[in-house]
Amino acid sequence: MENSPTVVGINRTQDASIAVARGESVYSIQKERISRRKHHWGRLGDLPERYLPRMPLLREPVDLVVECYSSDAEIEHLDAYHDELRESLDLRSDAGITRVSHHLAHIYGAFFPSPFAAAAGLVVDAQGSPARDFTERAPLPADAADLLEVGSYYACERAGGRIDCLAKQLWDGDWAHPVGLGCFYSLLTHTFWPEGEGNEGKVMGLAPFGDPDAHGLPDLEVREHEVFIPAAWMDAFAERGRYRHFVDGGGNFQDCANFAAAGQRAFENGLRRLVDWLHAQTGIENLVFTGGIALNCTANGILVRESPFREIFIPPSPHDGGTAVGCALYGQIACLGQQSDFRWTNDFLGPEPDATEIEEAVSALPGDLVLERPADLAAAITDLLESGRVVGLHQGRSESGPRALGNRSILADPRRPEMQDYINFEVKGREWFRPIAPLVLADHAERIFAVDRPAPFMQYAADVRPEYREAFPAITHVDGSARLQTVEPVNTPFLHELMTTWYERTGSPVLINTSLNGPGDPLTETPEQSIATLRSTHMHALALPPYLIRKREEPPIPGEGWERPPRPA
Question: Do 488 and 542 fall into the same domain?
Answer without folding.
Answer: yes
